[in-house]
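Retro notes
What went well: the complex prediction finally ran end to end.
Inputs used:
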Amino acid sequence: KQEVTQIPAALSVPEGENLVLNCSFTDSAIYNLQWFRQDPGKGLTSLLLIQSSQREQTSGRLNASLDKSSGRSTLYIAASQPGDSATYLCAVNFGNEKLTFGTGTRLTIIP
Amino acid sequence: DTAVSQTPKYLVTQMGNDKSIKCEQNLGHDTMYWYKQDSKKFLKIMFSYNNKELIINETVPNRFSPKSPDKAHLNLHINSLELGDSAVYFCASSQVGQGAEEQYFGPGTRLTVT
């Protein structure tokens, strides 16, 4: 069964620190992986998309890595800010034209 | 300019009623999706359409009927609403077969069934 897991479910970090969010998936034959951000009561904002052939993608203070062999992806956030507080969702396309989502990590940046 | 839009944003209705949610994308994508986010915030695919043709139907009750009048629109009609249908419904779109296939999501429709 193709599953996506995100641990921890919640994380609190002081402002200014660098942090890593984790995502693991059960099937290494993925097509791509997408990281999203969801603010309370809002929709999903796409942060980064990593193709199966890529190892990492960067956008500003965000860096996402992909290790298919170990079934893992990480989202690195540098110099965290209070505005980074949100739920971060990892979603995997296993080649079946749909996204399978993890349960998310609720991030709180403490000023 | 909103890429993927949904109406209404909020929908409160009673059990047994029939309701529709509309979705439109102006990205020129050929594939559209409906996802459901339950009370525990877990997101799961319901349907996908490619060029007005149903591609994915994830064992959703047949009270749910998607309709795609053209490739820019995917509407969701729900018959005989039940309490368990209360959730946030998200529409998304992507361009399948173009390499990137990033999915873009609408703002969501919060459905509350009383």
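What we learned: The interface with chain A takes residues 31, 33, 35, 40-45, 48, 50, 55-56, 58, 90, 92, 96, 99-108, 110 of chain B (CB under 8 Å).
What to try next: split runs per interface for comparison.
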